[in-house]
Design a protein that fits this description.
Layout lengths: L42 E2 L1 H9 L3 H5 L1 E3 L5 E3 L10 E4 L2 E4 L7 H5 L5 H22 L2
Antiparallel strand pairs: 1-3, 2-3, 4-5
Bound molecules: iron/sulfur cluster (SF4) (2 copies).
Length: 135
């Protein structure tokens, strides 16, 4: 499997490995895919919206925006993080993990998209470090 921010993936025993570094993919220490939520990119299905309404989670329905392909999507922060991502102490955790949407459940750690998000985050981080050293 392979769900984003699945605490099980934090285990170096069961986690898939990053081919760039050989390190286990630790979603809880990463969150790169959840940081790509700007412009309505993390889609929310009609099934998710219906399920949340049945669960009494109108707050989650209200926290969506217009997304790509005429669908709804998770709202994002000015930094591009999904509004349900919580960062702190070197961790990146989904606040709604138990009831997150289909898009999030189906996203696979170790997929090419996952690795692209991780590489992009690494590039951004390296660029930020270089900029701060040149000041
Ligand atoms: S980018 Fe990959 S490793 Fe990082 S949180 Fe998402 S699924 Fe996990
Ligand atoms: S709902 Fe959770 S798993 Fe899905 S993008 Fe937002 S923070 Fe990530």
């Amino acid at each position: 499997m392979t769900l984003p921010l699945d605490p099980d993936l934090a285990s170096p025993v069961s986690a898939p490995v990053d081919p760039d570094t050989g390190a286990p993919l630790d979603c809880v220490a990463c969150g790169a895919c959840c940081a790509e939520a700007s412009d309505g990119r993390v889609l929310v299905s009609a099934q998710d919206l219906g399920r949340w309404r049945r669960e009494g989670r109108e707050d989650l329905v209200a926290a969506t925006v217009d997304g790509h392909f005429g669908e709804r999507a998770f709202a994002s922060t000015p930094d591009g993080d999904c509004v349900h991502l919580e960062r702190g102490g070197g961790r990146a955790v989904c606040r709604i993990y138990e009831t997150r949407g289909e898009t999030c459940r189906e996203f696979q750690a170790g997929s090419w998209q996952c690795l692209e998000f991780r590489r992009a985050r690494q590039r951004d981080s390296s660029a930020a470090s270089a900029a701060s050293r040149s000041r």
